[in-house]
Design a protein that fits this description.
The protein is an all-alpha fold. The protein has five helices and no strands.
Length: 149
């Protein structure tokens, strides 16, 4: 019985030790990875975006290089700390970036503008004129009942 307790105690000690050592040796430490991308990648991204006029934040051609640098940075850090990429931490990280920097941008990445008057006027005038014409036609036909059944 004492031998069984000793072997059980050894097994528990080995499992406890393995639980402490193996995750750091073979898995991703999510907290460390998150700190690293915040300290390294986000800091550079904030610096680069700070140098860009706020009105250009929605312009893909102006932010593409900065955004690609951020994406590449999160990937390189993931490789160094033995994490899969993409992962939930990266997804949350980019959702936070979009919430802060790109929340006013159109889904297509282009700035929204009103169409020019030369385009807008026909789309307004044609339905109005057709409505008036059809109303006039109905009133005119209702006054002329001679040839109708």
């Amino acid at each position: 019985m004492a031998l069984e307790k000793a072997s059980l105690l050894k097994a528990a000690l080995v499992l406890l030790l393995a639980a402490q050592v193996l995750p750091s040796a073979s898995g991703c430490n999510g907290g460390f990875y998150e700190r690293m991308i915040n300290d390294l990648c986000l800091a550079k991204f904030k610096f680069d975006m700070g140098g860009l006029d706020r009105g250009l934040w929605c312009s893909w051609k102006d932010t593409m290089e900065i955004y690609e640098g951020l994406t590449n940075c999160t990937y390189q850090v993931a490789l160094r700390v033995d994490c899969f990429w993409p992962n939930q931490i990266v997804d949350r990280f980019f959702m936070q970036i979009h919430r802060i920097y790109f929340h006013d941008c159109a889904l297509t990445g282009r700035l929204l503008h009103d169409p020019p008057v030369s385009i807008l006027a026909p789309f307004i005038a044609v339905p109005v004129l057709v409505t008036l014409l059809m109303t006039a036609l109905v009133v005119w036909r209702s006054k002329r009942t001679e040839g109708v059944l």
